Amino acid sequence: MTKIDRHGGKHMAPMLDGCTPWPAAFVDRYWAAGHWRGNTLDNLLRGWALQYGPRTALVYGDERVTYAHLNRRVERRAAGFRLRGLHRGQRVLVQLPDVPEAVVTLFALMRAGLVPVLCPLSYGAPWITRLARVTQAVGYVAPAEHPGFDPVAAAAGIAARWPFLRRVFTLDAPGASSPYGGLTTDPAGCQYSPLATIDAPPAPALVQSSDQVAFLLPAGAVTGEPVLVPRTHDDYAYQARAAAELVALTEDDVYLAVPADGSPFVLGGPGVIGTLSAGGTVVLADGPEPTTCLPLVAREGVTVTSLTADAAGRWLDALPSAADSTGSLRLVQAGGDTTRSGATAEALGRALRCRVQRVYGLTEGPLLLSNPTPAPAPNPTPNSAPAPDSGPSADPAPAHALTPNPTPDEADKTQPHERVRPLSPDDDVRVVGADGADVPDGQPGELLARGPYTPRGYYREPEHDARRYAPGGWLRTGFLARRTPDGALLVTGRRTAAGRNPAYEDQTTD
Q: Three-state DSSP class for 286?
């Protein structure tokens, strides 16, 4: 828990070495606004388990995990990690598919005081090696086998070259046995264990500070090697909670977590953590394909999901033959592709007969969200009276005939669901020209942002910090945007590919 002094000020513990903290004035501002509340994410899970204990937290295939069971598994795995010699503040690479073990492992590492480094499955040996070297990771959690990439061999190579990686935990495929059969040690002294064996009686809870780094998220692998974004318990808990409140998530909601390799949006926008904070159910899908996801929507009564722009297009192609199975959906968050997302959002809403919300964002923050599209009218029943004839143009225009990016003179004519606003009322945003000066409303420029869930720098990357952050802690987002007369934003493109997360931006940008 975070400590508050008698004057209401916050005692800031030093962040993880290599991170840039928020200035004290901004810390006080975010606490005073109630955004930061002093709970670590793993401690929040304890509270959710008490509040929603017998309710279903996770669904994967035929496996169903209640809140109480999830918390018990987290407790035992956290104790198991500590029993294997991992200590508070050390970094552990986590490269797992979207399965319950991934959720358990994430929370267990945080509960043990460790710092997970979340790595997409698409990262091969070179990028895993770089992240291990930058973070000096002492542990690595990964599948025992993965198509096109051997995580165990990559770990052995790292352990042979450097002295820090000494614990590897492998996730075996269902029904498969570990190729090691149990705990083994290689010539470099690195130990290999099946993840399922990391289990021990719960240990006394650690006292942790919510202003510490909860995990590190990768970004920037489009044009070069990935860099890491430090997310604290305070800032990420706020992001997930605020996003859940914005879309009115409740314990009756069922969120479909559609894999989007490397996208933190599925984790906390509201995603998995936001859904758990509301007492809802998270359904984990094996892939984004409509043949995988649409049956899950029908079987589990999914009410909310989020899709990349690419996945949304594939769902549209499949929906003419499957729309009747998606009647439980009330909201789909669609990635903001500036060249087509306006058309895709409207077409998706019509096909699914639900509301669609456009979202833009970066691993570094902020999240920009639109008002959802209007709820489509229900399909007429066989006995209903026909709608009044309004002439040849009564049918909606084809999706691809829409104009997603109006000119400045047309900005005030755009639909509300084409305009976006930052998630937080304390997100500060500016639109600037090439000279770095603010431009008048209605004129295009680059969007700069800072706020309660936008970190002030990368992890151990001062050169990247100098390029991506302007004086005053302003993140150069790379989004091209302009303000509308009502104070909203129209995102029209990207200024640069530098510092981008390709998987996330397929979901949230062009």
A: coil
